[in-house]
Every structure is written in C-alpha cells, then in structure tokens.
Design a protein that fits this description.
Number of helices: 5
Shape: globular
Number of strands: 8
Distance between the termini: 46 Å
Largest sheet: 8 strands, mixed
Radius of gyration: 16 Å
Helix content: 25-40%
Strand content: 25-35%
C-alpha cells in the first residue's frame, strides 16, 4: 500500500515479499556502522524483522519505516519513515538508502516528505531524530529538514551515546 509519493519516489508499506531487499539493506557496511546490526542474516531473519519491526509498528502506531522505491520503475532503494521507540519521548524519523543512491537528493526528498506527512497528515506535533555522532551525511540531512542538535543520549543504557536532533528554534520577530 502506497503511503506517499514524491517527484521521484514512492514510499509504501514494507511486506514479507521485500525480505531479500531488507536482508541486503540491513547488511550494508554503512547500515551496520551507523545504525547497527539487527541480526538479520538470512531471508527468515529478514521476514521476522519486517513482522516484528515495521509491520508491528504499522499495527500499533499507524506508521513505521516505509520502503522507498523509485517511482518510475519500482526499484527499492531504501527505507524512510517514523518510529516510536520506548526509550524516546517523541516520534523520530529514520532513513537508510543503499549507497548507490546516495548523493542524488533522494534521502532528502524522502525525509522531507515523511516529515511533512507526519506533521500534516498524522498530526504529530514534534518529530525528532537520533543519529550516530560521526554520521556526517545524515547530520547534514537532518539539519536540512529543520532539525538541530540538542544533546547526546544513551537510549539503550549500554553507555553508547547517540546524538538527539530536535526541531530547530524558529527565529522570532526582530
């Protein structure tokens, strides 16, 4: 089911049939480095990840990570969407694209559309993001969609800190 479309992308629900793509994406070296190992080693693991992650979030919250695919030919390129983590007060935006699609403005296109959809369509008043402190490209993207560094947080209680980005303050009247 299509959630939203941009000029070049379609974002839709992730389904069990997407397991091969999810297996590939979650095992990209950049995903493992900046987001983390989700323990997805084979197609069964990928199907379980979909069922317990995105699909469970759709059922529980009405949103989750969506598959991002090229609008013209349906090629899957990554995922982008909204997450509600137990360890974070606010809904946060998440995204990951295959490296072949970096540097083309596609992550920005997806993230900007998801932010707009979350705020206007879903009525979520505040959307934040978490990011690895050394993920410079994602930090630039978060700033481009209107988020700003707030503080470092340890979401899992394991001593590993991540950076929390929140809506940037809007300048008041001069």
């Amino acid at each position: 089911m299509t959630i939203l479309e941009t000029r070049r992308l379609t974002l839709r629900l992730i389904a069990a049939e997407d397991a091969a793509f999810i297996l590939k994406l979650l095992n990209e070296p950049s995903f493992l480095r900046f987001i983390g190992d989700r323990g997805v080693q084979n197609l069964d693991d990928a199907r379980a990840y979909i069922a317990n992650g995105p699909a469970a979030s759709y059922a529980r919250h009405g949103f989750g990570l969506w598959l991002a695919q090229l609008r013209d030919d349906g090629t899957p390129i990554g995922m982008c969407g909204l997450l509600k983590r137990d360890t974070l007060d606010d809904v946060d935006i998440g995204f990951a694209l295959l490296p072949a699609y970096w540097g083309k403005g596609l992550a920005y296109e997806a993230a900007a559309a998801v932010m707009d959809y979350g705020q206007r369509t879903l009525g979520i008043p505040r959307i934040v993001a978490i990011v690895s402190p050394d993920n410079v490209a994602s930090i630039r993207l978060l700033e481009k969609i209107g988020l700003a560094f707030d503080r470092r947080v340890d979401l899992n209680g394991d001593g590993r800190e991540t950076s929390l980005y929140v809506p940037a303050p809007t300048p008041g009247p001069q």
